[in-house]
Design brief:
six-stranded parallel β-sheet; six-stranded mixed β-sheet; Rossmann fold; alpha/beta; globular
Length: 354
């Protein structure tokens, strides 16, 4: 059966298919690995064309969360949920209550949070039926703020590795996606003296970015932009056979998950002399923010921001590991995360009485 074949190939633990007749809910929850702790990953709401497309996305995204949480030093595993719906027209209270009830059946194996298409208000509705949700308005709030700062620090680290200086002043950054993370990233870059080119499928978002000092580009032109850094901050798979030959940038560093359509595209970037900052390292600020909310001591925004700032150091460690082992950055990032998971798994041999 192909479903189990797909799960086994990426070593997933569990898939939960969720349907509710009243609300029309169609969702999939994927738990990839819980070696380090409960699986944390957001709820993505997207009008997927097919069920196969939704399944492909949730499997890739949940695995990415395992590696991201491990690389950020969190005691959390990786999971993700996708909902087949249009976030602009299909949201109802019943929809999120139904989803929350399915999350609750997992008893804490999966903790949901905000992602593309879902909002803080949606998380509040989910919280009304299950405690297993993070990123709430009255605690950690919008994770995009910390995510954007982490991406900024990742760009600084990539510049340091590539040129020996982390200064972004005078650099041109082409941002694909003017959503919340892309906008927060843009603000940090503008404050640091960078020049911003920006595009989005929403004209309103682009207009708002231009009013803050960015220059607008048509979505079809973003890969051809004359820039120093290309920052994918929308959906994944944008680094592929078609886009790589068009890139003018010398660094790719952005917030989008699964930017490489296939692993071989990391090698293709290197062959063109383009430094890739692995996405699950660069965009780790969001999970750091939510994990801080789960801390028994309570949420602390300053501490979350400080931890996200260390993405700079983590990324430099990944680049150094790649040079030491003869690996490309995306391979080194995988190894960096896998080594932490393997050590934790080995320690589980120690019996701890309940």
């Amino acid at each position: 059966m192909k479903l189990f074949k797909d799960m086994m190939e990426q070593d997933h633990e569990q898939l939960v298919f969720c349907h509710d007749k009243v609300s029309g809910l169609k969702a999939i929850i994927a738990i990839h690995d819980t070696t380090l702790g409960p699986a944390l990953g957001g709820l993505r709401i997207w009008p997927y064309a097919t069920e196969e497309e939704a399944l492909f996305d949730v499997l890739r995204l949940s695995k990415g969360m395992t590696y991201k949480n491990a690389a950020m030093g969190l005691n959390l595993g990786g999971g993700k949920a996708v909902m087949m719906a249009d976030p602009k027209t299909d949201k109802t209270e019943e929809l999120f209550r139904a989803f929350g009830q399915f999350v609750d059946t997992l008893g804490g194996r999966y903790i949901t949070a905000e992602d593309v298409g879902s909002s803080l208000d949606d998380m509040t509705t989910i919280r009304s039926v299950t405690p297993y949700v993070g990123g709430l308005p009255d605690t950690s709030g919008d994770p995009s703020i910390v995510t954007g700062y982490g991406v900024f620090r990742g760009i600084q680290a990539a510049l340091m590795h590539k040129y020996g200086s982390s200064d972004v002043a005078g650099k041109t950054v082409a941002i694909q996606g003017a959503g919340k993370v892309g906008t927060y990233l843009m603000s940090h870059l503008l404050d640091a003296g960078a020049k911003i080119l920006i595009t989005d499928i929403s004209p309103e978002r682009v207009k708002a970015a231009v009013e803050k000092g960015a220059t607008a580009l048509d979505p079809a032109e973003i890969f051809d932009a004359e820039c120093d850094i290309f920052a994918p901050c929308a959906l994944g798979g944008v680094i592929n056979d078609e886009s790589i030959p068009r890139l003018k940038a010398k660094i790719v560093a952005g917030s989008a998950n699964n930017q490489l359509l296939e692993a071989r595209h990391g090698q293709a970037l290197a062959q063109r002399g383009i430094l890739y900052a692995p996405d699950f390292i660069v965009n780790g600020g969001g999970v750091i923010n939510v994990a801080q909310e789960l801390d028994p001591a309570g949420y602390n925004r300053e501490l979350a921001q400080a931890k996200a700032g260390k993405i700079y150091d983590i990324l430099l460690e990944v680049f150094a590991l790649g040079e030491e082992k003869g690996l490309q950055p995306h391979e080194a990032a995988d190894l960096y995360a896998e080594e932490r998971i393997e050590k934790a798994l080995a320690q589980k041999r120690v019996y701890i009485p309940c």
